[in-house]
Design goal:
Distance between the termini: 34 Å
Helix content: over 70%
Number of helices: 4
Strand content: under 5%
Structural class: mainly alpha
Order of helices and strands: HHHH
Largest sheet: none
Shape: flat
């Protein structure tokens, strides 16, 4: 979320300090995914990682970058969060049946 929200400040990666911060955030964003894939299948882990990033970026884009927010966008974010929760729940129920 941090790198996606901070990316406009780089102005096309032409500003050194914001660019450096965004690149550090990009690398740091992969660490939780890499750790999660030690114990989770890559599909659900990546879907959850991407879903959290997409929903968080959409909300912060609205709050920080004054992007438009409509009922349809809010519904879409809720659906993404629902999908993330569904994947998490499906993984937990699968672990419980083994």
């Amino acid at each position: 979320i941090a790198w996606a929200v901070g990316r406009p400040a780089t102005r096309g990666f032409t500003r050194p300090v914001p660019t450096m911060l965004v690149v550090v955030a990009m690398v740091a964003a992969f660490l939780p995914l890499a750790r999660a894939t030690r114990v989770l299948p890559i599909g659900p882990a990546y879907a959850v990682w991407t879903g959290i990033g997409a929903a968080g970026t959409a909300v912060l884009g609205w709050l920080v970058h004054d992007e438009s927010m409509s009922v349809l966008r809010v519904l879409a974010i809720v659906m993404v969060i629902g999908g993330v929760l569904g994947l998490r729940g499906a993984n937990e129920s699968r672990e419980g049946t083994g």
